[in-house]
Design a protein that fits this description.
about 250 residues, alpha+beta, Phosphorylase Kinase, domain 1, D-amino Acid Aminotransferase, Chain A, domain 1, seven-stranded antiparallel β-sheet, five-stranded antiparallel β-sheet, 14 strands, binds thymidine-5'-phosphate, binds aspartic acid
Length: about 250
């Protein structure tokens, strides 16, 4: 981590200047937050697992034609990504009711939704990432109508692909959050999938037991957080090479 210029520090990641212009190094921390930073902890080994899980999922998505910022994994905790201008809109796709939709709309937990639902949240920690409509996004210029169409179409493709991929390893993709960025190429701009796809930003339920294999284990103090992330990685066939040394757990501090 030394000698590199830090560009940004988020709740679970740090971005550093990359080795060449237009690239960044994305470092995955073990820090966990929930409920807009009100609950904090360290999940030892989470960063290593998330680095691998996001690498795997972004690579698979790239192979089926979803453009992403991912370039390659550099080491246990870092990956090289293209520098993008992050669009301040979090796109959530839901297949099964869980979390905030249950509270907000009174939908029973675990009810299958009539169809996949795409929601937008304004990425602003101070405001607690409020739910917003397309109208707000386009009126305030966070994204143009065409950008939003692209994001929605990509989010649904990601949902189709990842739902199948997870189902194949006995996991239900309940919901997930995506972030997108603008990638500039001379005068041309295109929208690409950015940030990460990991159990920090997804709900993943075991197909047999409906047990959580994601950050809800941390949010709800269910225990065995890192073990659940490890199991996701194991089922995807991507356990990190030097795993046990850097992943001792459980050590969920609050
Ligand atoms: P929610 O039920 O709290 O709205 O979350 C829906 C999904 O989106 C869940 O898998 C967690 C993810 N998510 C994030 O990753 N970051 C966020 O800031 C929020 C609000 C949700
Ligand atoms: N990621 C958000 C936070 O850290 C919300 C959550 O995941 O519960 O506060």
């Amino acid at each position: 981590m030394a000698r590199r210029r830090q560009i940004y520090e988020g709740k679970a990641k740090v971005l550093f200047e990359g080795p060449e212009p237009g690239t960044l190094v994305q470092y995955f921390k073990d820090d966990a937050t929930a409920f807009n930073n009100q609950k904090r902890g360290i999940i030892t080994g989470k960063g290593v697992l998330n680095n691998r899980i996001s690498e795997y999922l972004m690579t698979r998505l790239g192979e089926v034609g979803v453009p992403t910022h991912f370039v390659r994994r550099l080491n246990m905790r870092e990956q090289l990504v293209r520098e993008v201008e992050i669009i301040p809109v979090e796109v959530v796709v839901r297949n099964i009711a869980a979390g905030s939709i249950c509270k907000r709309l009174g939908v029973p937990e675990a009810a299958p939704l009539p169809r996949s639902i795409v929601e937008y949240y304004y990425k602003n920690d101070e405001l607690g990432d409020p739910l917003v409509a397309e109208e707000h996004i386009t009126a305030f210029g966070w994204a143009a109508p065409q950008d939003l169409d692209d994001m929605m179409a990509m989010a649904l493709r990601v949902n189709d692909f990842l739902s199948g991929l997870f189902l194949g390893v006995g996991i239900r993709l309940v919901d997930f959050k995506l972030e997108f960025g603008r990638l500039w190429n001379d005068e041309e701009m295109r929208i690409v999938l950015a940030d990460e796809i990991t159990p920090d930003g997804c709900r993943l339920w075991d197909i047999e037991t409906n047990g959580s294999m994601d950050k809800d284990r941390f949010r709800q103090d269910l225990g065995n957080v890192v073990e659940a992330y490890q199991e996701v990685a194991r089922r995807l066939g991507i356990m990190p090479e030097a795993g046990p040394r850097d992943m001792k757990g459980p050590a969920t501090l609050q």
